[in-house]
Design a protein that fits this description.
Blueprint: H1 2-32, E1 46-49, E2 62-63, E3 68-69, E4 76-81, E5 86-97, E6 100-117, E7 123-127, E8 133-137, E9 144-149, E10 154-156, E11 158-163, E12 170-175, E13 185-189, E14 209-213, H2 225-238, H3 241-264
Antiparallel strand pairs: 1-4, 1-13, 2-3, 4-5, 5-6, 6-7, 6-8, 7-10, 8-9, 9-14, 11-12, 12-13
């Protein structure tokens, strides 16, 4: 009975979460068709970054021509907003697990799309579905990292923009959907530093997925993602599937002779 009750709670939570996501997307997509005379919040405009000021949106984080994420010098988060409803985000995080403290995962993530603020002050972000990218590395799970498409709508329950009393610079505080505050961000550029706001990577295949050589990662340490990608491309280029099949067949035959030959000769 307890099991059924737990399953019912889990399913209801999942259903509620899915419904909320659908509502966020519907509201944000509706905002895209609003008239050009709408007034977007001017205090959001610009490129904001967490304290290291190393992770920033724009061409220094994601290269759409080569479809490549570029590692910053330090971990951090950056958001950019325009005065006509567009945004861009860049994440570079190190995620440690208590069970394997020596194997932190690396996460690079990039999205862009449209945003709006509703009447209660909540901030909604809806990305262009095919453009988002995510790179995940786990040095203890194998010798490669995953590079794939990423699409996640976001809702911040509120935001606050003011002059930081300690640094005396514009500061932006975002609060997640449940009210949890994110790390404060500070204004780096105004107008914002962003890639074009239109679709940059139209779908040409079902899924963008590649493997890259992975290196050990620690917080605040850069990754050599680009070098790993080049090494993997050379590896894939050098493998011939037909040759590999014949080599496998030959080795199987040799193994059979080594096993059966001595037995038939009465040596074993």
């Amino acid at each position: 009975m307890l099991l059924y009750h737990s399953l019912a709670i889990a399913l209801s939570s999942l259903t509620l979460s899915t419904a909320q996501d659908s509502l966020f997307v519907a509201q944000a997509e509706a905002a895209q068709s609003l008239p050009a005379t709408i007034k977007w919040p001017t205090n959001l405009v610009g490129t904001w970054s967490t304290k290291s000021l190393s992770t920033l949106t724009g061409p220094g984080f994601f290269d759409p021509i080569s479809d490549e994420l570029i590692e910053p010098e330090h971990t951090g988060i950056s958001y950019s907003f325009t005065d006509n409803g567009y945004y861009e985000e860049a994440y570079f995080r190190a995620i440690s697990a208590p069970s394997t403290p020596n194997c932190p995962q690396g996460l690079l993530q990039w999205q862009h799309g449209s945003y709006f603020v509703n009447s209660t002050g909540s901030l909604y972000l809806v990305p262009i579905k095919v453009d988002g990218r995510q790179l995940i590395s786990n040095p203890c799970a194998g010798s490669s990292a995953d590079y794939l498409r990423y699409n996640q709508s976001e809702m911040f329950s509120m935001y606050s923009q003011f002059t930081d009393p300690y640094h005396n610079v514009p500061r932006l505080d975002l609060y997640e959907w449940d009210g949890t505050p994110m790390n404060p961000m500070y204004l780096v550029y105004s107008p914002p530093q962003m890639l074009p706001t239109t679709t940059l990577l139209p779908v040409t295949s079902a899924t963008a997925h590649s493997k890259m050589k992975k290196r050990a990662l620690a917080p605040e340490v850069p990754l050599s993602w680009k070098n790993g990608l080049m090494e993997h491309k050379e590896l894939v280029r050098s493998i011939n599937a037909d040759r590999l099949w014949w080599v496998g067949l030959g080795l199987t035959g040799v193994g059979g002779l080594l096993y059966l030959g001595p037995r038939r000769m009465g040596w074993v």
